[in-house]
Amino acid sequence: MKLLITGGGGFVGARLARTLLARPQLDGQAITQLVLTDIAPPPADLLADPRVQARTGTLLSQTPAISGEDFDGVFHLASAVSGECELDFELGLRSNLDSTRALLDALRARGAESGKVPKFVFSSSVAVFGPDASVPMPPRVADDTLPAPQTSYGTHKLMCEYLIADYTRKGYIDGRSARLMTVTVRPGRPNGAASSFFSGIIREPLAGVVSVCPVDPEVSHPMSSPSQTVDGLIKVYEATREQLGGRLALNLPGLNVRVADMLAALEEVAGPKVRALVRFERNEGIAGIVANWPTGSSAERAGKLGLKPYTQFAEIIREYIADCQAGPNAQDTLKGMQ
Ligand SMILES: NC(=O)c1ccc[n+]([C@@H]2O[C@H](COP(=O)([O-])OP(=O)(O)OC[C@H]3O[C@@H](n4cnc5c(N)ncnc54)[C@H](O)[C@@H]3O)[C@@H](O)[C@H]2O)c1
Fold first, then answer.
1. How many helical (H) and strand (E) elements, i.e. helices and strands, does the chain have?
2. CA 217/CA 121 separation, integer angstroms
3. 244 has a pLDDT exceeding 90
4. What are the sequence ranges of the domains in the chain?
5. Cβ(204) – ligand 1 distance below 6 Å
6. CATH topology match: 2-181+225-251 vs 196-221+254-296+311-337
7. Residue 31: which of 47, 10, 45, 49 has the closest Cα?
8. Atom of ligand 1 nearest to the CA of 180
9. Paired residues of 4 in beta bridges
10. 58 C-beta closer than 6 A to ligand 1
11. Residue 191 pLDDT
12. Ligand 1 center to 47 CA (angstroms)
């Protein structure tokens, strides 16, 4: 089968690619070709796999080629992150909304010739939810909570969810949107997402570096790990329409956790010296954005697909440590533990 991952050079996209290539099959078929598109090239290990073809450039520049190819499935992950979209309104529209529409139309145009209806998984976000004076946000956002995004990023994600549901209704794609919870621990450097600190307060101390937490310890949010997120995307891909139980987006599972719980877990796993590297310095800008985010979530429909969150944040930290230990830079990434 021939698959496309947009955003295949990114954090989740590259991990998804690795996981898919290591599996014997997806949806009962072996993967013979995996096209990764992104502004940035994918990591070298992926480029070394003969099944991988990397195409570098904006998604908008790639869609004319895509309209001439038969894909069995698409994971659409390319996206500008929340902070970038707030800073640059045009960039957000172009990267997240216009690109998705162009991708969907490329697949529709191809399908009109080939009769193929590709499976299509879209990585939506918990950022579609937010408070509105007319619709108070419940403490745990559920599959059927009315979305009320409070950022351009969340708004574009929601618009894309609806586009995907409609292209599916019309029979152009077999689409499904999975709302990712905040994925921690993200390796590498902080990114432009307002949620970046959720990873930073674990990743930096483990590396022996001071981390500043910009929100109060009582702030609570739903989190998932990279491996759980990738498993969720794959399960949602493989689910039948009947198993999905509808065209509308579903929540992926998250562990509802307070910053204070995250730091207690850090101390449990890595000790008090590592925990002591986190200090609190309130940043009104970030705290203001986070105040509009869900404090927790539930994922009933994903649960029916067999997806469950971890029950302890320590498990998420241990997953990150194991990933670092398997990588080439463990001496640096886990310096705080030495
Ligand atoms: N990581 C999270 O906590 C989280 C939470 C909710 C939703 N999501 C969604 O999951 C997906 C993957 O997230 P991630 O953490 O891997 O993000 P990421 O930033 O690491 O990866 C996204 C990739 O998309 C690429 N990209 C951005 N604009 C593009 C464009 N116009 N054309 C082509 N490529 C473009 C970037 O270069 C990047 O490599 C995204 O859609 C994101 O919105 C992530």
1. 16, 12
2. 34
3. yes
4. 2-181+225-251, 196-221+254-296+311-337
5. no
6. no
7. 49
8. 6
9. 35, 74
10. yes
11. 81
12. 19
